Amino acid sequence: MATGHTDPQRRERILAATLDVIAEEGVGGVSHRKIAERAGVPLGSMTYHFSGMEELLREAFGRFTDHIVDVFDAHLGGAADRDAAREAVTGLVHALSEGSRRDLVLTQELYTLAARRPAYRELTHTWMRRSRAHLEKHFDPGTARQLDALVEGLILHRALAREPHDRALTREAVRRVTTVRR
Q1: How is domain 1-50 classified at the architecture level of CATH?
Q2: What was the pLDDT predicted at 4?
Q3: Which of 20, 123, 129, 180 is deepest in the core (most CB within 10 A)?
Q4: Which residue blocks in the chain are alpha helix, DSSP H?
Q5: Handedness of CA 45, 16, 161, 74 (dihedral sign)
Q6: What are the structural domain ranges in the chain?
């Protein structure tokens, strides 16, 4: 592994290490020293690649939201019709709630930052807009907004419940939100 400024992967390792440290210790436990150690880079390279902790956190969380939007795309991208989209949303909820605890923790850490700091609120706003764009390929904008909120809530409830609800309940909740009433 290269260790000089010519190391083309150093910046990426720093970003990945930042997310790892946040997932393990929370944003409050993050320091340049811990990140550099985790990334296997000299401490001085932290300020070479990033102007400060705020830039590092924003960029790392930006990478994280890109990852989650990619998960949305992987589930919803192949849905050919509304019924397939409903099933894809059901699968998305279960994949994210049964998947990486790291992703769950990073999501909650980002939400906490967004509740406190406008720069992170803008990041979550962009993330929500991108997620809803995937849903709007199959549902009208109002339904997509409701469905996006439902997805977030169902993921959190399933991930934290002692006895998570089953796929049938998720499927029914998605159907109710996406059924047009006249």
Answers
A1: Orthogonal Bundle (1.10)
A2: 47
A3: 123
A4: 10-25, 32-39, 44-49, 53-76, 82-98, 101-116, 118-135, 141-160, 167-178
A5: positive
A6: 1-50, 61-178
What is the token pair recorded at 150? 């439902």
- Minimal CA–CA distance to 135: which of 181, 173, 174? 174
Query: Do residues 32 and 43 make contact, with C-beta atoms less than 8 angstroms apart?
Result: yes
pLDDT higher than threshold 60 for residue 1: no
The CA distance from 177 to 150, in Å, is: 8
The token duo for 100 is: 């990486």
Whole-number average pLDDT of the chain: 92
Residue type, 8: P
134-158 residues labelled b (16+ CB within 10 A) or e (exposed):
bbbebbeeebbebbbebbbebbbeb
Judge if 1-50 and 61-178 fold alike in CATH terms. Answer: no
CATH superfamily name and code, 61-178: Tetracycline Repressor, domain 2 (1.10.357.10)
Contact call for residues 174 and 86 (beta carbons, < 8 A): yes
**Average pLDDT for residues 119-143, to the nearest whole number?**
94
d(CA 61, CA 38): 17
pTM for this predicted structure: 0.88
Q: How far apart are CA 170 and CA 174, in angstroms?
A: 6
Tell me the pLDDT band of 182, cut-offs 50, 70 and 90.
Answer: low
